[in-house]
User: What shape does this take?
Amino acid sequence: MIDTASLLAVLPELILTAGGLALLLTAAFGGEGMARFVNWLSVIILAVAGVALCCSLEHGPDAFDGLVRADAFSVFAKALIYGAAAAAILLAPRFFAVGHTIRAEYPVLILFAAVGMGMMVSAGDMLTLYVGLEMNSLASYVLASFMRQDERSSEAGLKYFVLGSLASGILLYGTALLYGFTGSTAFDGISLALSDGVSKGELFGLVFVLAGLAFKISAVPFHMWTPDVYEGAPTPVTTFFASAPKVAAVALTVRVAIEALGPAGLDWQQIVIFVALASIIFGAVAAIGQTNIKRLMAYSSINNVGFALIGLAAGTPAGVAATMSYMAIYVLMTIGSFACILQMRDAEGNPVETIASLAGLSQSRKGLSAAFAIFMFSMAGIPPLFGFWAKFLVFDAAVAANLAALAAIGIAASVIGAYYYLKIIKTIYFDEPAAAYEARGGAVENVILTACAVVIVLGYLLNPALDKASAAAAASLF
Amino acid sequence: MDGFPILSLMMAVPMAGAIACLFAGAQQARWIALLATLADLVLGIVLWINFDQSASAPQWQFQEYAPIFGRFAWALGIDGIALMLIALTVFLMPICIGASWQAIEKRVGEYMAAFLFMEVLMIGVFTAQDLYLFYIMFEAGLIPMYLIIGIWGGADRIYASYKFFLYTLLGSVLMLIAMMWMVHEAGTTEIPALMAYNFDPHVQIWLWLAFFASFAVKMPMWPVHTWLPDAHVQAPTAGSVILAGVLLKMGGYGFIRFSLPMFPEASAQLAPLVWGLSMVAVVYTSLVALVQSDMKKLIAYSSVAHMAIVTLGLFAFNQAGLEGSMMVMLGHGLVSGALFLCVGVIYDRLHTREIARYGGLAINMPKYAVLFLLFTMAAVGLPGTSNFVGEFLSLMGVYQVSTWAALVGTSGIILGAAYMLYLYRRICYGEQKNADAAAMPDLSVREVALLAPIAAVVLWMGIYPESFLAPMRPAIHALEARLASAAPAGDSKIEMGAPKPVGEGAVHEEVAAHGEAH
Assistant: This one.
């Protein structure tokens, strides 16, 4: 029985779906000329969906008999997802304008991915989760291979598809095991069944589910696809992959771990701790040798997911709040960094991806270099930039949960990570100038860049608001 | 001055200057930086004048509190110790700007902005009353210093900048974990409250070690000092001045503000470790300094040796040691800064730091030779100069707890005299070996204006140290009282002699003795 309250709870998804379909038709009939128009319209649809988020809270968290949950947690995650998706759309036209015509499918695919991500973060049932995940993934596979003529892009799409399907299979298998041993696919039901002891079968199910999710958040040891896909995909798509789906997958992992597998906390905690530390260390070490900036950002995102998971490893409301705050700040830094990377264009406007080409950028493009440096220092977690606060929160939560040793190892490993971020700053500021880039960045790029940089620098003033929002989000899970 | 946020203003002025410099042309940036630092110097003097030095004064003054950051607050306030270090900072900054006036030609705006930002952070470190605010200021200093060394440094600047950054970062992050633990345990982020909180002595050891990791690197103590010679040699002159003058003092400040009052028991237990490392440092780095052929490296190693005297004094747990350490820090800040400036003066002329390339400068640069001699003597610790007071007090303090440490520490003074006088002889005396060195002009007006104020303060501090000791005394007393219960027993077995009988007879005897002498 579908009631109005349930429909209102998924209002943002409804808006995105309807908007996406309408835009698809517009694009189909309007042809290439409509591309820019569709682009802007899709951003407006995302904004409207964002506004609708506020209404979705009013009718209590559960919708469709618990299949979907519209709580503060999902609102927090969705706000980030929509914001990141909008940025990924806005950053695209300038990139695709060179050599390719802009295609209207790009924003539409992102809208569909956003629908899937919205379902992921507000899933209350393993099946909703799976459907949402697949919806997002399908759109993502197409996006990765969006530049059809480009070999690397097609390769990235194929790789993503094959490995992604494998992960979905693993996840589904885990879900089946959990269903078989607990008799439910609903998070509540699983949690209830687990609360009187965890059987072997349930444990296997848990491990498989977490393995599938670890693939989606690209945590070690399921990270292998990330560098290739990030490098091969068109840069705006990489921007998107590194931000919105990352938030969705991390939020989903947190929700499953706390809501469904909460009673088995001690069992998954060790897994999460291992995955977190492995991601931090591997992400940092592997990034050192990279020469391609997008590949480097891929390892950086692996590294960052490791930090975010430390909050989850704490398993406390403060830890969950820290993880969500981490993702919020991470999204800002990532979008800002990619807005910089998108501006790496040679004199003809072709994208350049080698780190070496950044040499001496500070002498030709002062503002861009300063922004780049801000994001890199922030990613490295150096105060007074906001990236430090993200790391601070997760480590603080870990210390409060008596995981001081984990925090100490994690933070020591963050120093390894600092090295490769410093390498970029060194290239920009210390090295002799290489061939100059295009003299000016696009207006939209610059606006996004500046906005992110300002927030990263002055972010501490947002602390009270961020604390409040993330605490409310976390509280809705416990 | 009640309620006027002078400390915030002291940070706002250079911050505004830094932003302005980023957008200004080269010459404008120089003037903006100079004016901003001079304005801060004036504010610093106002601060000192208004600082209540009476015994009944509150320990923390000029307090500001604004809980705008959620988990931590914009909480500022100073005691005498912080006041002195702030005074040192604002005094050295205009000199640094002046020293870079001509030496820095490329990207002047960014350079000045980095320096002004550095000043904001240094004042922030010394004024922060919130644990996390302190950490943020403490760590943020890495960014401008990394850029200063990396962009405007010497040939091997990139290696030096990485080493500086990663060494200090690795040291500091563990301190952050310890801070988080402390805040959860004590339930407050306020430094004055934490200074009075009694942590479990068993946990104190771990916390102390975590803080030690950070401050020992910053200080720097042997064996984690190796970043310092590299950083100094590669940094531009003003960078070296600020590094030796103020940044190293953050380590000492950390010990005196955190390690000692917050973990007194652990400090007492681990004091032998500190003494041991300091003793090695004094002897080893002095000997290393003796064989250097690079002027800046020599002074850098001498810094490590002087800082070892500071740590010896700090872990003496008594008033003499603590006061002496503070005086060494202030004196060393001035003297090593001045020595780096002296190196900079001749480096600007000949573009080499090789000692052997100079010689006989007393002939063609008499003014330079006089000032350089004064600072050399101050570095040696000649009575009448700033360093004598500090070194004497801290060694006296440490003698009361460990005679061995005092013995080895004192040998550093002798070795210090050796390497400094040897340096001076090779540069200023002897024959004029190289024609280009012999042709160098004497100090310009600008250079005299940079060195003369330091010389004046060095003498002031040596002749009337009370001006500097008086503001710090209440804070040092409070710290000594805090440490009293934990202070380790000394091995010097000092006993108070029986007071001489004061009476008619005694006076007569003295008079008689005088009479005989005549």
